[in-house]
Amino acid sequence: MENNTWLVVGLGNPGPGYAGNRHNVGQMVLAELADRLRATFKSHRTNATVAEGRTFAAGPKLVLAKPNTFMNVSGGPVANLLRFYSLQPDRLIVVHDELDIPFDTLRLKFGGGHGGHNGVRDIIAAVGTGDFIRVRVGVGRPPGRQPAADFVLRDFSSTERQSLPNVLADAADAVEQIGAEGLTAAQLRFHTAAG
Fold this sequence. Notes:
- By secondary structure, the protein is of the alpha/beta class.
- It has a single domain (5-191), classed as Peptidyl-tRNA hydrolase (Rossmann fold).
- Helix content is 36%, strand content 21%.
- The chain has 6 helices and 7 strands, in the order βαβββαββαβααα.
- It has helices at residues 25-37, 75-84, 118-127, 148-152, 158-181, 183-191; strands at 5-10, 42-44, 48-54, 61-67, 92-98, 106-110, 133-138.
- The protein has a 7-stranded mixed beta sheet, with helices on both faces.
- α1 packs across α5, α2 (75-84) crosses α3 and α5 (158-181) runs antiparallel to α6.
């Protein structure tokens, strides 16, 4: 494969029952990106659905992938996709929900641990390294004593849903900018943005 290809994985759980959950925000971002690329998700032999495209004619190729597995076992499909496209983990961008970041906030980083996120934990185990880019989409902490597992498996609140399109657009912008200009440029833009 050409070296200007990025594998962008959106984490979530399969099936319509989970589609609106906070835990599925990674897949929501991929839907936004696919719309922009005018790309359609198709079944892929790596146990994922995949859509491919470029944001502009000479721009990087983005391979958008949603594992068909549940979140906690996302690693197998991701490892298979990296092999299929002959990409190293440093060409992987994982988009996922993050409890430790307030709603409507993005944090972009390269490498590190899993931070308690089981989807990221499984990818690190399957790929053999944590050296990949993460686009962490803040969903905030659960209210009161609600368990985190219950909170992420619930849909966004009606108030959150009003600003969710902007959140998804920002995360999609971040992925596009990482692909075109690199992580540092995207961090400068999104980490210093107000709000």
